[in-house]
Write a structure and sequence with these properties.
The chain has 209 residues and is an all-alpha fold. It is 69% helix and 0% strand. It folds into two domains: 1-48, Orthogonal Bundle (Arc Repressor Mutant, subunit A), CATH 1.10.10.60; 58-196, Tetracycline Repressor, domain 2 (Orthogonal Bundle), CATH 1.10.357.
Amino acid sequence: MTRSTRERIVDEALRLFAERGYAATSVAEIEAASGLSPGAGGLYRHFKSKYDVLAAAINEHAARTREQIAVSLAEVEAAESLPLETRLAILCKVGLAKVKEERELTRVFFRDLSQFPELVQAVREGLLQPMYDAITTWFRVQPEFAGVDQDWPAVGAVLGGAVVHYWMFLDTVDEPPGQVDRDRFVQSWVRLALGMLSETRETSPVTSA
């Protein structure tokens, strides 16, 4: 699908911010990368400032995240017939893919957003918290844990944090932590989750058919 000029500006600006830093990226460079005449002011036909481009990128990524979460949770019921281990592996892989998708925004978040507290809040409320909330919801709706009194937000923080750390380490040093490839990480993540939840599974109420 052909991107609109506005979409090109947002995408290319975020890429440049991630590569060079927000302050080091000029409006003219964003225009050139977007296929516009550098320095001609084409960016200002769509945005008031470079800051507005960054804010738009965050808002659009947040909106896309909400849509992705809604789709993923809608697919939960269809996957209930699969073994729990398989469902956990799918959850981990989806999480890894999402963190990888947000690598550019993550770089900008840690390097540049401290100067914009309102944008830090937008990322926290629009992307980070919804992703952790989605993990919490995922566990709560699994049939094995129906009606179980468990601290699901804490479980989500531990398991979700492991996924985030894996990709942040890979992105920072250009190799996975402990040189553990993706498949091995997923397998160990599933074992960790099962170990954390083994007592919960043993004490969960039996539901009648």
